[in-house]
Every structure is written in structure tokens, then in C-alpha cells.
Amino acid sequence: MELGPYILLASLEGAVTAAVLALTAVGLSLVFGVMRVVNIAHGEFFMLGAVIAWWVANSVGGHPAIGFAVALIVAPVLVGALAAMADMTILKRLNYDPERTIVATIGLLYILQQLTLMTYGPDARPVEAPFNQRIALPWIEHTQAGWQMYYPWGLSTTTYKLAVIGAAAAVLGGVWAMMARTRIGLLMRATQADRDMALASGIPVEKVYALVFGIGAGLAALAAVLIVPIQQAHYLMGADPLLLSFIVVIIGGLGSLPGTVVAALLIGLSDGIISVFFSPTLAKILATLLVGLVLVFRPRGLFGTRAP
Amino acid sequence: MSRETARILALHGGVLVLLFAAQFVLPAYHHGNLARIMVLASYAIGYNILFGYTGLLSLGHALFFAAGMYGMGLGIQHGGWSPAPALLAGIGAGAVVAGALALLALRTTGVAFMIVTLMFAQAGYLTILYYGEYTRGDEGFVLQTAQRMLWGIDLSDPTNRYFAAFTLFALCLCLSLWLVRAPFGRVLVAIRENEDRVQMLGYDTHAHKLGAMVISGTISAAAGAAYGLLFGYVGASFGSVQYSIFPLLWVLLGGAGTVLGPFIGALFMFYLIDLSSGLTTAYMLIAGVVLVALTMFAPQGLVGELRRRFWKGLP
Fold first, then answer.
1. Nearest Cα to B56, choosing from B189, B202, B227?
2. Residue A156: enclosing H or E segment and its boundaries?
3. How distant, in Å, are the alpha carbons of A45, B64, B273 from that of B255?
4. Which residues is B233 bridged to in the sheet?
5. Burial zone of B2 (CB within 10 Å; 0-12 exposed, 13-18 middle, 19+ buried)
6. For A110, which of B115, B252, B288 is closest by C-beta distance?
7. CB pairs below 8 Å between A and B: how many?
8. Which residues of chain A have a CB within 8 Å of the CB of B106?
9. Smallest Cα–Cα separation from A251: which of A18, A10, A13?
């Protein structure tokens, strides 16, 4: 393949990564923005979403689309409920002290990961996509005979991948609408702005916290359900989404939702394109160093308005 | 010497005498375990100086442990050095890495400090994997018995190994005890309690934190170098996030800001995992449950509780 089509293919793959990453990272960002909690177990909620999707898809018979559709609803709800429970039993008792919650969520990470290992096992298992038609993409090139359109070998995408991008965009729109246009969004923003003032105005801050923690985890689980037909479900799959979400949230500015989405696009697309030229390990080294340096020299992130 | 000082010396000296005597009575299996625990406890002592006494929670100490281990291991494996200069190279590597990271990370505080240390440690771990040609990556490399002769003493022999581990541990314990009772250590504790006030009193808090991080990183590197030399294996997994979490776990369990806490925590956790691995392979589950339970019910740790209830002046 020529370089041009190759980069188009890489950016298409990158767009899928970016879509899933944006969902996961918005969940993390929401939790940090409203609750000021850094949730290290976020990647494990992602992993649980994928594992539950496999479990649901396997227990529901019939066409794969039915199982997938059920998983799309069941996995985020179950994971969200679990997270809300963890918030009420553990985080609430720590008074949301930033350092102690980090240690507790590290503990939660190991508990979820190892419980999955004990029940689901160490295998990576696939979930069948509800639909998966291959679409060959054309490429236009200037040759001696003038502009020519042709279909390069290997340049293609699938309907499912396009659907993932569309679904992620729709959900992100929904999150924005919830935050900006609904009453519960208003309560969340009020809690984010000033916890004590919100409490004094009669907002049930503890319930808002549990809800936000649940929604954050639910978004990660939803992202995992979307990606699991492309990438298999495995008990260690939470590490990369966690790291990438961290990168996205920090670059985008902690707690800023638009910044998070822009950063997810930036990281997702550049990840696809960079891995064409560099080894994945080198790309990860550069990315982690970038996050560290951004936090040291520009703690507000590229789009954020305040330091963590 | 005041009565308090005498009691403190008696307690810590007593623990060292007990550990020294233990090698003559313990069965071989526990004898080997205790040698390992003493090296890991030295790592935890290094961690405790930064976390327990200075109040800076680092999630990247595996970087220093691995720097010590690889500084030593690469010197022996590729430089053909003898263990003594290799050990020094490992400790030096740890000090340099700690100093460099401190200059960057100390510009941040709180949550940002944790994430910055985590990210740089992760970058370090990935770098070890990237240069797999020399470091052998996850697979690691084994140091042969012939490469582990320190001044003619064979460190692969269990008795010598126990004695070497004991020497390292005793040095770290004494250094830690001396440090936290010296003026420098007092300032560190004051920074932990209220940094603004210490600054107002005219102390250079940045320099003190920098010093604490370099000392902490150097002790961690010494433990890493000793671990590689005593147990004959150098691998990338010692640089992974897990090895940054372990010292945090040991110190929290034993009691942050106590001199004996790191050892008690490492001892307790080691045997907890040792006993539970007979029941399940998912032993990290135990670590997770202990972490959550500790943050919820006993943020002071074992020795910390002892201090709170019985002995207020325990360092």
C-alpha cells in the first residue's frame, strides 16, 4: 500500500480508538470534576463491562445482535450499580480524602481484577458483532493519465466500526445534554462548583456523588461493550484504557468535558498514526512522559481552567 | 541520654538482636523468607522516609528499586564488573534518578505529585522493556553464582545471604532511626504536618523535600541492587506499577511514620500472601482487600496503633 491510503486507514482505526477513549475518559473526567476523586479502578470498570458483555451475549440465544443489544443495556447498568455501591460503602467513609481514595481505589482495582480472574478465567474471549460488513474505500491519486479513483488493497473499514464512532458521538451528546439541560445535571454542576454551598442549599450531595460515580463507571462499561467485538474480553484489559484515559483527561484539563473530548480525538488519532511509524512501546513511553511533563509545567492541561 | 532515648535504643536494638539470633533457630524455608523480607523491608524503609515522614505519597518508587537493580545487574552482566562496584553503581543510579525526578515532581503537590511519579515510573518501566536487547525485558536475566562473589564471599549461600540481608536492613534501620531524630528529620515531619508554617519559620522546604526524596530513592535503590545480587535475578517486573504499590502497602500496614512499621508491614504481608497462595492463585485479591480495609479502618497501621495507645514518643 502507498503511504497516503495507509495513513487514511490508520486515521480510520484511530477514530474508532478515539471514540471509545472519549467515552471512557469522559467518565473519568466527570468523576474527577464533580467529586475530586481520582479513580484508579476506572480501567477495571471498563474491563467488567467487556466481561459482562461476553457473559450476556453467551447466555442470550438467537441472533448475535439480540445478545449484543441486551449487553449494551445490562453491562453499563450493572457496572454503574456496582460502582455506586462501592462509593457508598467505601469512598463515602473516607470523606473523599484525595490521597486515601487513591489508595482505596487501587485496592478496588486488585479486588475486581482478581475476582474476574477467579470466575471468568485467564482466557481472552470474543463477542460477535451484531453486523459486520466490509466496506472497501476508494483512493484518488494523480497519475500520468490524470486523476484516477481506485480501490487500494487492504484499505477498508466495516459497518460496525462506523457504527461505534456514531454511537460514541451520540452518547457524548447525551452526556452533554444531561449536564447542560436537565435538573440532575444542574445539581451535579452545583456540587462541582461548591460542595458546601450545594449541601447548604439542600442538594443531596451524597446521592449526587453516588450517581456521578455510577455514571462514570457506566460510561467506561459502555465503551467496553462497544469495543469488545473488535478487541476480546480479558481480565487484564483495563490497564491500557486507564492509562490512556488519564493521559486524555490530563491533557484536556482535569474536569473539563469539552477538553476531554478534544484530547481524546487528538490522542486516539495520533496513536493510530504514530504507531504506523514507531513501535507501540516507544509511542507509550512518549505518551507517559508527555503526561508527566504537562502536569509539571502546565497543570491546568491544555484546555482546563484550574489546577488539580 | 534520656530515659526515652534509652527505651527507643533498647527496642530497636532488641529487634536487630532478635533478627540476628533468628538465623540459628529458623528452619530453612523461613530462614530464606526472612532474608527476603529484610531486603524488602529496607525498600519499605526508604519509601517510608518520603511517605511516612515527609507526607509525600509517591506511586513511582519502583523506578528507584529498578534503577538500583539494573544499575547493579547491567554492570555485572554487560560490564563484567565485580559485585562491589556494581552495587555502588546501582545505588548511584538510584540517587541520580531520584534527584532528577525530584526536581521535576516536586513542582507539583498532592494528587498531581502521585500521577507525575506514576507516569515517570511507567515511562521507566517501558524503557526497560524497550531496550529488551540488554535488559531481557519481562524475562529478565539470571546472575550466576560466580558473578555473585562479594570479596570472596559466596552470596548465593543461604547463611551468607541472610547475613548480607541483615547487614543491609540494620544499616537502613539505624539510618532511618538516626535521621528522623536528627534536626533534618524533625523538619521533614513538620513539613508533613504543615508546610506553610515551616516555610514561614524560615526553612527552605523545597530543599528539605528534595533531600528526603533523594535519601528515600537511594535507600530504595540499595534494596533493589541487593535484591538482584542476593537472589540472582534481574527482571523488568520489578519496575512495574505493582512494585510501587507494594511498599505503600507495607508501610500503610505497618504504620506510616514509624521506624519499625515498614518491617512489621512487610513481614505481615509476606506471610499473608505466602499462606493464602496455598488457597488461591489470585493472591493480589488479598492485597486489594487489605488495602481497602486499611484505608477504612486503620489508617495508622499496626505500629501506629501501638504508638497511639501505649507509647506516644515512639519514633
1. B189
2. strand A156-158
3. 30, 22, 19
4. B142
5. exposed
6. B288
7. 113
8. none
9. A18
Q: Is pLDDT above 60 for A21?
A: yes
Tell me if A94 and B296 make a contact (CB, 8 A cut-off). Answer: yes
**What does the alpha-carbon distance between residue B146 and residue B160 come to, in Å, rounded to a whole number?**
15
Smallest Cβ–Cβ distance between B111 and the set A94, A113, A308 belongs to A308
DSSP state of A140: E
Interface of A with B in 191-250 (CB under 8 A): 243, 246, 250
Whole-number Å distance between alpha carbons of B102 and A5: 45
Q: What is the pLDDT of residues B86-108, one digit of tens each?
A: 888 889 999 999 999 998 888 88
Nearest CA in chain B to A90: B296
Query: At residue B152, what is the residue type?
Result: G
Q: In angstroms, how far is the first alpha carbon of chain B from the final one?
A: 16
Residues of B in contact with A299 (CB under 8 A): 108, 112
Residue with cell 512499621: B261
Specify the pLDDT at position A307: 46
Containing A142, the helix (H) or strand (E) segment is: strand A139-143
pLDDT at A77 over 90: yes
Paired residues of B234 in beta bridges? B141
The 10 Å CB-count burial string (b at 16+, else e) for B148-162 is bebeeeebbeeebbb
Residues 6+ apart with CB under 8 A from A143: none
Contacts with A113 from chain B: Cβ below 8 Å: 284, 288
Chain B residues touching A94 at Cβ < 8 A:
295-296
Write b or e for each residue in A103-134: b if 16 or more Cβ atoms lie within 10 A of its Cβ, otherwise e: bbbbbbbbbbbbbbbeebeeeebebebbeeee
Residue B245 near residue B15 (C-beta atoms within 8 A) = no
pLDDT score recorded for residue B219: 93
Higher pLDDT, A155 or B128: B128
Q: What is the Cα–Cα distance from B72 to B83, expressed in whole angstroms? A: 8
Instruction: Kindly indicate the confidence band of residue A308, based on its pLDDT and cuts at 50, 70 and 90.
Output: very low
Query: Cα separation of A166 and A89, whole Å?
Result: 36
